[in-house]
Specification:
Length: 148
């Protein structure tokens, strides 16, 4: 059975990934900051690794075939995405897989450091919908900005 470490399992993307992975029969360990929240969301049978993702050791990561990084943070701490990616890449073995799930919600632009999502919402022309953080139809991505 494939062993998966899901970093950020209690976040919005993490919750969906956890449900899909367990439904597919994968052995998922939820890496979280708060074990109680994971048990509340996924039940008492959830396998939990409660610690800061930036402290995961090479030995701890060696227990998994796949690491899914669904880590989420505030825009003010968006540099933690890069720190965590570097941390994981330097500790994973050659036969392990790393999947990184990112959203545009924390990307900043311009002299005023405004959210890129705000620019997307203002873009004219044909658009494709994308979900907002609350699961309602939110920001819209202009069709001419979508690339294969």
């Amino acid at each position: 059975m494939t062993k998966v470490l899901l970093i950020g399992a209690t976040g919005m993307a993490g919750q969906e990934i956890y449900q899909a992975a367990t439904k597919a029969g994968l052995a998922v360990t939820a890496q979280v900051r708060h074990a109680d929240k994971a048990r509340e969301l996924f039940g008492t049978g959830v396998t939990v690794l409660e610690q800061d993702a930036l402290t995961l050791s090479k030995d701890e990561l060696a227990n998994f075939d796949v690491v899914v990084n669904a880590f989420s943070t505030s825009p003010a701490e968006a540099d933690n995405h890069q720190k965590l990616a570097e941390h994981l890449v330097h500790r994973l073995g050659g036969d392990q897989r790393l999947l990184v799930i990112l959203g545009a919600g924390s990307l900043l632009d311009g002299a005023d450091d405004h959210l890129v999502v705000d620019d997307i919402k203002k873009a004219p022309g044909p658009t494709l919908g994308s979900p907002s953080p609350r699961g309602k139809k939110g920001a819209r991505l202009p069709a001419d900005r979508i690339r294969d």
